[in-house]
UniProtKB/TrEMBL annotation, chains A, B:
One of its GO terms (molecular function) is oxidoreductase activity. Belongs to the NtaA/SnaA/DszA monooxygenase family. Residues 29-383 form the Luciferase-like domain. Its EC number is 1.-.-.-. It comes from the Bacteria. The keyword Oxidoreductase applies. InterPro entries: Diverse_substr_monoxygenases, Luciferase-like_dom, Luciferase-like_sf, NTA_MOA. It comes from Paenibacillus filicis. This is LLM class flavin-dependent oxidoreductase. Keywords: Flavoprotein, FMN, Monooxygenase, Oxidoreductase. It holds the Pfam family Bac_luciferase.
Length: 445, 445
């Protein structure tokens, strides 16, 4: 490795995470998910802390069982465009689905965000887990898991091809000669694949970052292969430093085997932090939040992973293990596998699993004093379990983010672990990720 | 009519219009179409003049024959979201196609813009005229003209239905009871039509305007019927006050026949103004701009209306009339009909038509002193030929808009014809357009 590793910190402004009732906390901004003032003020707070980027999730299907914080939300690209105008350096990561979108629109949306933000756009590529989504897009059925990744691979090929439509410097705008663009630097994609057929070119010059950064969160086997091939940032969930290490080395090896420089793929688990003046006070805050859990809400949330009809048939306090076969859904494959292991290992009842999934109780090393949280971050980073973290703005939104920026970041900066100012104008520059060459550009000799 | 008519003025920030070489003018901001600073500063200038809205066009297909100002542009919704954050009262009209988009995405994008802007969003519904667009979306062929309008009608039914998913006040967010929303105010669309099948609900609460305003620019017979049924603003091009009057009364009658209040459909032709200290100076500026025209560029622009292969076969100075059959394309039907009439009436050659289309020479009553331009606006408005205008930010971008705001608007205000401040917080309020009732809401008794 020629360069020192850099700790990367993003902030997830997506509301909620797994705790379905935390919005009831007195200090929780309960309409945040639909309130642009929340996103602008949180992004500015994150920029105050020199965080590398903000992250915004998405979904394309809700019903009356959807968790409160997910049922009412702004669309990510419009949201991030407002934030782009209200900030100047922080990166902007937004989520769009390859299963329910058109590559031409997606290339334009993220290309436009990259132009608008002067080089701060990143696309979190998702394949969409919830089967009901198909019904919002006139599809007979939701594609099965691995097929979604095959479509996604082609989708990315097309989008990257469209982003290469115009070489650097193609637009001359020479008023005296009347030459607006250099036609030799315009390339028509003419893509014809199994799932997509797209002519091009994109109606947009090369973006400030060459192309927006690719982020990916799949952690199934197909998801990890996809990430190793395409992703520059991997967003993941890892319950312990040991599991994080295994994941980190697995994904970096997969990338290396594909001929990629593993340093150009950053592994960032999502974490939720609770910061207080003492360990006891932090735990008290955690207990206060856990006490808000409503078992009905927790069960609804489980329907992402377990078949709703089956849930309804099982007694709350019955052992779950004997029922598991055929109960787990096709989406979120890595998570459902983890659930199966947990149920067997700890002999969980349905109630036990629901509460466990809602609180992630006993699994959070990032609860404690600011020193403790900074120590944990340093430990995971130096153990090469992570390249950094995506820190939730919660659990109490947006107080979690404010405490992190005001109390934890200065400690990391004081230790020389984290930058005290942005290093570059673009997110690629900031993260040390290279600008991908345009596929058509002649190497200069 | 119970209320006095209000003069409405919007500004089109779309670059170019019909003049393909005006970017060569020394004062033209030649990278404006891809530069967010242009859109933000122009929107702020328009807001300084209390203009009702800004308008942004779009297209989904370019090739190396596309006019310079259209080949490299920002995506409208991301662009308008930045502008939403940088302004506080002006309306935001953006263009999206019903032929190449999904209703669920479009409902979210404009719904999100309406939330983000606190009630200033409007959707310019287009059916997409350029047949090549099909190739960017994996379609075998572009739908023919009237079929596009049938699809658009269904598309709008779906989008309006999705916008009604949640009644006013559905989100209670009651922390003490734990009730986040009132389930009786949630409605699942379950739409199944000929072209679309969309379950719903939308993952977004009712927007500040009830729903975004619908704008439409079709002027063919199918287009006018569609506008009469759905549009709240009709964007049109009318070469003379007489033609404008005929169009105005035609469209208002069509709306009345469908049981609509014709005052709730505003007819706004697009105009390009040139303002100078004297009529002679204004004409001189017009001549300066026209002198920039390049015949090759002008011919390329004609390819929107005439088959390119046919254009290549015809001598530039030959009479065009005998060749017209089979030469006109299927898109922009009203415009191609106008071209056919013009060619026959004035015995135009190919060169003559190209220059005529590029300059619209001799057809612009809005060139002259500020008083003259204000007089023309007043005359068209008082003659009930229009409800107002959509004023181009050009022809010299953005100087045209600045001159209009600084010199023409104050005269209209001085005459009591135009407001001196915004009347309302939302664009609907500003334009006097009613908030559409939610289809599921019980009338209060």
């Amino acid at each position: 490795m020629s360069q020192a590793r850099r700790l990367v910190l993003g902030s997830s402004l997506s509301i909620g995470g797994s705790h379905t009732s935390v919005w009831r906390h007195p200090r929780y901004w309960s309409d945040a998910s639909i309130n642009i003032d929340y996103f602008v003020s949180a992004a500015r707070k994150a920029e105050e802390g020199k965080l590398d980027f903000i992250f915004v999730g998405d979904s394309l299907y809700v019903n009356d069982h959807t968790a409160p914080h997910l049922i009412n939300r702004l669309e990510p690209l419009t949201l991030l465009s407002v934030v782009a105008g209200a900030t100047s350096r922080i990166g902007l990561v937004g989520t769009l689905s390859t299963t329910y979108h058109e590559p031409f629109h997606v290339a334009r949306l993220f290309g436009s965000l990259d132009h608008i933000s002067r080089g701060r756009a990143a696309w979190n590529v998702v394949t969409t887990a919830l089967p009901g989504t198909a019904e919002n897009f006139g599809r007979d059925s939701h594609l099965e898991h691995d097929q979604r990744y095959r479509v996604a691979t082609e989708f990315l090929d097309v989008v990257k091809g469209l982003w290469d439509s115009w070489e650097e410097g193609a637009f001359l705008r020479d008023k005296s000669s009347g030459v607006y663009f250099d036609a030799s630097k315009l390339h028509t994609l003419n893509y014809k694949g199994e799932h997509f057929s797209v002519r091009g070119p994109l109606s947009m010059e090369r973006t400030p970052q060459g192309r927006p950064i690719i982020v990916q969160a799949g952690s199934s086997d197909a998801g990890k292969d996809f990430a190793a091939r395409h992703a520059e940032i991997v967003f993941t969930h890892q319950p312990s430093i040991e599991e994080a290490k295994r994941f980190y080395h697995d994904i970096k090896e997969r990338a290396a085997k594909l001929g990629r420089n593993p340093n150009e793929l950053l592994v960032l688990p999502g974490i939720s932090t609770i910061v207080a003046d003492s360990a006891a006070q932090a735990q008290q805050k955690q207990d206060e939040i856990d006490a808000l859990i409503d078992i009905d809400e927790a069960l609804k949330e489980l329907e992402r992973y377990l078949d709703p009809a089956a849930i309804a048939r099982i007694d709350l306090d019955e052992q779950l293990a004997p029922h598991l076969d055929g109960l787990l859904t096709d989406g979120y494959q890595a998570e459902t596998e983890r659930i199966a292991q947990l149920v067997h290992k700890e002999n969980l009842t349905l109630r036990g699993l629901a509460l466990r999934m809602s609180t992630r109780a006993g699994h959070n090393p990032f609860v404690g004093t600011a020193e403790h949280v900074a120590d944990a971050i340093q430990q995971w980073f130096e153990a090469e379990a992570v390249d950094g973290f995506i820190v939730s703005s919660g659990p109490i939104v947006p107080e979690g983010l404010h405490h992190f920026v005001d109390q934890v970041v200065p400690i990391l900066q004081g230790r020389g672990l984290y930058h005290t100012d942005y290093r570059a104008e673009t997110l690629r520059g900031q993260l040390g990720l290279p600008v991908p060459p345009n596929r058509y550009a002649q190497a200069t000799t």
